[in-house]
Structures are given as structure tokens and as C-alpha cells.
Amino acid sequence: MLKQAASGVLSRTSSCDVLKRYASVDVLPAALLDSLFEHPERTRVLCRALVDTVQPMPPRKRTLTIPEPEFQALVQEALDGLPDEYAKLITNVAVVVEEEPSPEVLADLEMEEDEDLLGLYQGLSLDKESFFQAGGQLPAKISIYRGPILRLCRTKKEVVQEVRDTVVHEIGHHFGFDDDDMPY
């Protein structure tokens, strides 16, 4: 999981947050982390060096509790915060909150048992849709996974930010962006 997180830092804007979550304080003092946040290139170099050397923290048990209705409200707030020109383009996309991804989803994505999936876009992206395409396609669906997000975050503020980032990321897939094209 650390290798994936550190590799993901190379394309994420919140690289400091990822390092804080997955690296121990003994390995990366807070002053260094603050310095890295201001210098993204240093962060990339450090992540490349850390990928094979830093030991991951033990898996976190969920300590933060946010009731499902409140979590769903956070997802709705993220959707409501979209600019109108983008919100119009997702009116036919179902956005759902699920507790955990199914074992079948994890198997399809070839994810390891200890990896967390925060969200998933399923459907045809706008750049792939065509008038000439055969009918019978299910509408696009975005799943936001409550369990993994709550395990990842330590504070409600982090949950709010992670929900927003995950919703925006999955909507990016609807617009045809790959993971490498998006900052988070």
C-alpha cells in the first residue's frame, strides 16, 4: 500500500498529506514534511527514494465515525460545489455511497487485500459516447466508498476534503480523464 501511495504522490497535489498518512514521524520529521509541501519537486524525489525503504504503518482500524446520512450529505455537498457547466454534464450519472467495494470489484481491479479503493467510476465516459453506439448501456455510476475513506482520514476535515477529492476524481473519469491526467 505504501508503494502505491508513494507512487501516487508523483501525480497528486496533496503529496504532503499522503506522506503524513503513510510514513512514520521518526522517518520524516514534521519540519521536513512542511518544507516538502512547499517544494513539490523535492517531494517527488523523496517519494522515489522512499518507495522501497519506508515501512508502512500498520493498517488502521476505523477510529473516526461519521454516520451514513452525514457522509451522504458530504458527497452531496461535493456535487453541489461543482460549477454549473460541469454539473449539467453529470445529470445522468448515478452517484451512490457504499460501505465497502465488493470482493468482485477488487478482483476486477486486481487490487491487493490491504489496498483501499475510495471511489469507482463505472460507465462510458463522455468522450467515448456516440450516437452510433449500440443501445442497452447502463447509465454511468460513481460509487464513493465510506469505509476506506473513514479508515484513511483522521479528522472530519480530512474526510470532507477526501470526499470532495474522490468525487471530483471519479467525475474526471466521466469526462474521459485517466488517473495520470488528474491531480488527485
Structure description:
The protein has helices at residues 2-9, 15-22, 30-38, 40-50, 68-80, 84-87, 103-108, 146-152, 156-174; strands at 94-98, 119-122, 141-145. The chain has 184 residues and is mostly helical. It is 46% helix and 8% strand. The longest helix is centred in the last third of the chain and has 19 residues, at 156-174. The protein starts with a helix and ends in a 10-residue tail after the last helix.
Task: Name the features.
184 residues; Zincin-like; 3-stranded mixed β-sheet; mainly alpha
Task: Give the SSE map.
Blueprint: H1 2-9, H2 15-22, H3 30-38, H4 40-50, H5 68-80, H6 84-87, E1 94-98, H7 103-108, E2 119-122, E3 141-145, H8 146-152, H9 156-174
Parallel strand pairs: 1-3
Antiparallel strand pairs: 2-3
Helix pairs in contact: 1-2, 1-4, 2-3, 5-9
Give a short overview.
This protein has 184 residues and is mainly α. The protein has helices spanning 2-9, 15-22, 30-38, 40-50, 68-80, 84-87, 103-108, 146-152, 156-174, and strands at residues 94-98, 119-122, 141-145.
